[in-house]
Amino acid sequence: MANPVHQDCLGTWLNLHGYNKCEVCGRSYSENAHEHALMLGLAALSLFLFSTTFMALPISVGRVFFDSVSFIMLRFGLKHDDFCGFWIGCYFMRAVYVSVCFIADHIQKGRINLLLKSVLIWIRNGLIFSIWISVIPGLLGLLIDLMIIIPYRVPPLNESPVCFLILDWLIGLVMLHIWTFMTMFTPINWFATDAWRGKLERIRITGINRLPLMWLLRDVIGSIVSTLLTTLSIPYMLVTLMFPLFGLSRSINSAVERLMIWPALLALIAVWFTTKLTRDLVIYLHQLVFNERCLVGERVDNLTEE
């Protein structure tokens, strides 16, 4: 039962402000003050439960996410942060809410076929996106690690090089996005061939949802993966199959691989890039001089015959 002192205080406060009777039932406020106190208590309890749930549920989702990637965090010495976990949980819950609303809306309107088509597009895009951000950056980062980072380390020469896959993946992801941005959104054509610029331009203009899946897997993703695998496998096969024929020890083979083979591959790529850049520059200068001396296809006006 509510405290009568609190009821008298509430009734006195209502009487002072001119609220003597309820406009609906005609009862005096002093008679049902305990009902108002109960309503205020329930409102405060509801607000407390809502705010607690709003804070605790996203943090719990974020902690589950951190637990699932704990092996990566331990690798880099990172710790769980409830602030980051809260925002990760909020984004995850928002994605679930949007997906549920989208599915419920299509079911209510009877557009099951469109819903199934959208789900298939999501699955297809998820497959392509997972390969694009996992396999390709991993191979690219491994290639950069073998050509640039490992040759400059100073472990004993008789030890095999150790690759940190997570670090290689991060390096490859950054380099892949830089290459994609430079190729698609800048006029610089030094970092890709005309064929690759055409592919990326088609993806940007048409949109990934309206492009054939086999074309994306074969001509875009498959082409990059095959190029990276070929670049990685040729030096490895050279060291594994040909060097043992010379009768050298394993430590010498490892040192030659680390200090000669991969830097030589980097030098070949640099020479090829420089040659391509020089060729494009010579062609551009030749066309520029030729167009100044011989105008082909230009219309000449204001000519008078003497």
From TrEMBL:
Keywords, A to Z?
Membrane, Transmembrane, Transmembrane helix
Q: Which Gene Ontology BP annotations are present?
A: ERAD pathway
Query: So where does this one cross the membrane?
Result: 37-66, 86-107, 127-150, 170-192, 213-239, 259-275
The answer to whether UniProt assigns keyword Transmembrane helix to this entry is yes
One GO term describing the cellular component: endoplasmic reticulum membrane
Domain named E3 ubiquitin-protein ligase MARCHF6-like C-terminal is located at 116-287
Q: Which InterPro entries match?
A: MARCHF6-like_C, Znf_RING/FYVE/PHD
Q: What is this protein called?
A: E3 ubiquitin-protein ligase MARCHF6-like C-terminal domain-containing protein
Q: Which organism is it from?
A: Arabis alpina (Alpine rock-cress)
